[in-house]
Prior knowledge:
Layout: E1 3-7, E2 10-12, E3 18-25, E4 34-39, E5 46-51, E6 57-59, E7 67-72, E8 77-82, E9 91-97, E10 100-101, E11 105-109
Parallel strand pairs: 2-11
Antiparallel strand pairs: 1-3, 3-8, 4-5, 4-9, 5-6, 7-8, 9-10, 9-11
Amino acid sequence: QVQLVESGGGSVQPGGSLRLSCVASGTIFSIANMAWWRQAPGKERELVATIRGGGNTYYADAVKGRFTISGDNAKKTMYLQMNSLKPEDTAVYYCKWFDIWGQGTQVTVSS
Length: 111
C-alpha cells in the first residue's frame, strides 16, 4: 500500500523560500502523476503543480514563475521549491498520487 509523507513546511516572511518534499513508500514505479495541492483556511483545496508523463509539468497561474516542481524516481520523492512566497500562499500543502493523499504540511507566510 502506497503512503505519502510530506515535510519541509514552516513559517517564513514574505519573499522567502521553502522546499517541500513528498516521499512515497510502497510500490510506486514513477513519480509521474504526482501533484501538490494546497488548502487555505476557509477555502477549497486547489491544485498547485503536477508532474506528468515525459517530465511535463503544470502550474497553477497563481504560482507560475515562483514555484518549481521536480522529483527523483529512484528516491520516490517529489519536491516543490517555493520562492518569492506571498501571504496568500499560506495553506496546508498536500502531496497526491492518484487517489492517495499525504497528511499535509503547513506553510505560513507572514511578516
